[in-house]
Structure formats: C-alpha cells, structure tokens
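Q: I'm teaching a short session on how sequence maps to structure, and I want students to see two examples side by side rather than one. Could you give me a first protein with its sequence written out and its structure tokens following it? Keep the formatting plain so it prints cleanly on a handout.
A: Of course. Example one:
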Amino acid sequence: MAFAIEEPLSAGDVDGCAQVARDSRLRVIGDESIRLIEQLTALPEPSRWIVNVRVSKTGGVLRAMEVVAEATKLGIDVIVGCQVGETSVLTRAALAVMASVQGAVIGAEGAFGTHLLSSDLTDRTIMWGHGGLLRGEDVPDRGGGLGLQLDPAAVLVPLEGT
C-alpha cells in the first residue's frame, strides 16, 4: 500500500503538492523542490512531507547534514537519496549524512556502484549486495576522503593527441 508520492507536480509547487497530500491522504516526497533549509521551513503542513536529501543536490556533505538536521527539528522524515550513476565517493558521503542523525532517515537510495557504472573511481566499490544490504567491510569508517582512495587509472583521462 502506498504511503507517499514523489513530487507529483512541478518543482516548486509546494501548495499544490500539499493539496495533493490532503486529497490523496499520501505524504509528499519533496525532491527537486527542497534543497535548502529555507525551502524546508516554508513547507505548509510539515507532517505531510518527506524530504529526499541528495548530497550532490544540496551542495555537499555539510549542507546535506544541515538540511537533515533542520528536517528532523521540524518533524519531517528524510530519505537520503542519490543521483543515477553516482560513484562510491557520493555513496560514502551519503552514509556520513545518514550517520549524522538518529531516527529521521526512513529510507536510502544509492549504492548501485558497478550495477550501473562500468567502473568506479575508487579502490573499492560500495554497493548493495544480496538482499539489498551493504556489507560492513565494504564501507570504510576512517581516513581522509571518507576512507576511500581514488584509483588514478580511473580518474586520469588522457587528452586526445597525447
């Protein structure tokens, strides 16, 4: 049974989405309409919303953490999402955002790794396995760069004619 619908109207039409939520009795997952804290605080009827926070969409790990913290304060549930084709770098960043809050994250997208990419940019690929679960040993928990090392061969692309 459905409990929510993702951005059923044009981005920015929060009043219309709130009306859809009331009429359908579904919560609205704000995606393109919500990237900034100011957009969260302006939402009518916060309990009818879920915000889809994407690290790349919000401008980085710290800004994504700020949006998640504000959503939590306002009583808005959170999905930490990803863009199609994100590398393990952004998957690891999203995991850091999820770890920054307790209880507000009701869903997560991402960790597709080489299920969608022909190769990754890092020394290990963080992606879901059997049952849609991440294996703990695949997720680094310390070190600079969120514990990942870039694979120089994957990052350096030769220029034409060189």
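Q: Perfect. Now a second example for contrast.
A: Example two:
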Amino acid sequence: MLLGRLGLDTARIPHADRHGLICLDRGRLEVEDGCLRFVTAGGTLAPGDYQVPHQSVSAILLGPGSTLTHDAFRLLARHGCALCAIGEGGVRLYTAPPLGPDSSALARRQVDLWSKYKTRMEVARRMYAMRFDEIVRTRDIEVLRGMEGSRIKRAYTLAAERFGVTWHGHRYDRADPMAADLPNQALNHAAVAVQAAAAIAVAATGTIPQLGFIHEDSGQSFVLDIADLRRHDVVLDIAFGAARKAATSRESVDRLVRTRAAEIFRKRGVIPGLIDAIKSVLDLREEGESAAGQNPDDPAPEAISDAE
C-alpha cells in the first residue's frame, strides 16, 4: 500500500499530547512527501504554502473556499486527526467524520452519568451553575428551568439596553420566522451559530450528541446542552450587536450575525472554551462519589423531559 508515500508508516501521537484545533480556509489541503500542506490565497492565514502538523493536532476545521485531496483524507484518518467542514469561523458544522479522540473515556463517562437519574441531575445542576455563576441547590428539573427562564428574560432586557436596541420581548414563530422583528430574528440566527460551535466541540471530544442531560428528545440533545452554556452571553452579544447594525445596513441580519459570530468565536476562543466545558461538566468526582453508589436498577424518578 505504498507505505511511506503518505507517511502512513509513522507512529501516532496520543491526543492527550496534542495541541487542539487548527482552522483553515480559502486554500487547498494536500499531501507532499508524506507531509500535509495547505496552500492558501489568504484568509485566516496570510497567503502562502504551509506545512500542517497533522500528527500534533486533534482536529482541523476546514472553512469556506477550501478543497482537499483524497491523499489528505487518508493521511488524516491514519493519524486520527478529525476533519470538520465548517462555515465561516465555525458558525456552521456541515460534517465531522468520527476520526477524533483515540480514547473513549469521555464518552464512557457521559454514558455512566447519563444512565442514572441522580448523576444526570447532578450534571444538569452543574451546567446551570456554570451559566449563572452560582451554586444551584434544587434537584428538580422544572425548578431549574424556571430559574433559567427568569434569568434569560432579564438578560435579554439588559443586552438590549447595552446595545441600544428596542426590545419588545422574545417572540418567535417557527412556522413564520421572517415575521419576527430584527432582534428576534438575530437571536434565532445567533443560537444556530452557537449550536454549530457546540457541535464542533462535541465532535472534537468524541462525546455522544444524542445523550443530553437537560434536553432529551433531539438527536443533538447534548449539543443543545453545551450550546446553552453560552446562551446568556455569547448568543446575546452576537444577536443584539447584529440587530443594532442591521437597522442601518443593507446586509441581511443572517449575514451580519454570521460575520459577528465568527469574530466573537475567534476573539473569545468560544470553541476551545466549549471543549473545556464538556470536560468540566462530565467530571463529577465530588458529587459523583455518592451518586455512583446508586444502584442503576433502582427505579428512577420521572425522566427529564426535553426543554423548550
């Protein structure tokens, strides 16, 4: 199989010793002399010909205007480097073949925590604590959702005041999305963008998108859980900033949201931060010590239903 032509006979580096993500766009990803190279006319990187350290990164995020060769696919697969096809700056995730982590530890931990009601609630409580920066003592999912609703409603009002946007409340009709005012349209587009960032983080960590701790019915339940961790800050900053600009711009609110989201993702390190958040919410060693002793065959309280 022409060993060596693509560097296929070299040893792989464990993901624990790698450096995370590389974002590439507007160029060609190919292989030369067993090395991965990226030739770009200019985008995220300045114009030039770059050698990509595929053995020392966990995932490559390939943005718009890019092509890649079959040899590049093969090289990435051989070294366990995930390839995610994304929108500008990570505001969409189009595909992510499961070639990421070389360990199932996070996925197994997720299944273990999800499979028992008590630990599932502990993860949900930790997520709310991360969002609102306070200890959440209740173990009732409906109480948690009520707390979220009141805080988010207040956050909408404060964000609108901060950006000088007229706000008449959160109103959105899925059947007729264009009927909403600009701030509500922007909120919807911003939520989709942050959900894409969360999907990239879930793909990069090899966790299971279907197994959510707050959301349940969706095939992207865990993605929605993780996206909600930045709903109160990143989503609102993207949405209300874009809504303010849309009032005087000829560009569509969707495009303005994507552009602003890509900028905020880059400046704030949103995707790496969500990866760290996944590792944090699935690390319940303190609470889990007592929860782990629960018999998984014990009858659990009513299952957590899908959040609105």
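Q: What should students look for in example two?
A: Point them to this: The domain at 15-95 is CATH 3.100.10.20 (Ribosomal Protein L15; Chain: K; domain 2). Also worth mentioning: Residues 64 and 130 are 33 Å apart (CA to CA).
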